[in-house]
Model the fold of this input.
Amino acid sequence: QIIRVEIEREGMSNLFLTTSIRAIAEAEKLSTDELPISDEVAQVLASDLEYRLREVIQDSKKFTRHGKRRQLTTNDINHALQVRNMEPVYGYPSGQQAKSVESLFKRAANSDVFYVPRNVIDYKSAIHASIPAIPPEMSFMNHWLAIDGVQPSISQNPPTVLNSTHAEDTGEPSTKRDKTVDTVEIKPPREHVLSREQQFLFKALIEGFQKHDETTRKSTLEALREDPGLHPLVPFFAKYIVEEIDGNKENLKVLMNVLELFSALLKNPHVFIETYITPIIPMLITCVVGRRLGPLGNNEHWSLRRRAGEVVVEMCKKYFSANHVLQRQIVKTLYDALLEPRRSINTHFGCIVTLSLFGPQATDELLVGILPNYLTTIFNRIKKSVEEEKRVLGAIKEAVSAAYLYKLELFNGTLLEEDRKNYKDVEQSLDGYSLPSSS
Done:
């Protein structure tokens, strides 16, 4: 009764009949007339057999799915049985191993019954058989798949020239292996080629903003900011910007024109330049913190550094949502350069101006806390002229004043004790400077 209740509660299906279970038991001499198998035991065995069979089928389907196939094969069933330490099914193998029945089994005499033959091996022939070669040890090696987009002609890479052409040139017959290789179509790398109209447009834009005519220059920059068809020219603009800045560090006019060009491209909503800014960023940082820009005695480099800082901040703000690491890396680079006393005074000016351009909050968090120590130690150790000292101190005062007013507005005119102390220390470190009033 307990077994019957368990069967009804579990709701086991009758995939296998109890009569089949009794027949199998009698064939295996597990059931006799004196000790027959009861209905309850036969039902439990049928349910257990159904459960085991479902497990094997599910495991077989897993092998089919992992093999990227849809059709279940006998090999999948054999693998499922082997996983469960069961003897595999002897039958037709699937795939290329399938052969005729006569090659797999032997037929009994005058009968349609087949059985698996057991081949008898002569031990003398086995002893005198040649020993197979030792397989080589596993090893690894490196090779170039491509160099600058071109596949090198080495043995590890597939051939780039069809063997049929080689056979025609050398007069040698093509082997079967060569024919299989010829069926593979290898396409050469494609270069980004501009049409004639795009080349003319690129040349016209480059020449337009280089002219001294202010009207032509403004119209060219306006086209760079608004033209929706400039995206195919972006990699060529990026290459032009890098080459111009790298080769014209003594020409401030060229550097300023290139900065205006890049700023105009950043403002164009139809141009996606983020992919190409990686080589441009070092050039922009050079315009900010370069030791010497332009000829000696030319003071126009101060405005160039400020303009370069504005372009860097503009770039970071545009791509901050897509690349959070970009702004953090640039700020860290400028901050580390500011704390280095071996840097020139020009470099310190560019760092202070650019960090302040990120906003008064950035000035409050990055500069205000370190300025007293910076002014008394690092700043005094740097070689500088009166004009250079005036420029740097003016940039510091401008940044501190903006950050102080921002703090007053943020806290409704009442600063925290720590903030008030920090700004007072900065005020005392700067001779002749007083903090602005909230009014």
Remarks:
- The mean pLDDT is 80.
- DSSP finds 20 helices and two strands in the chain.
- The longest helix spans residues 39-66.
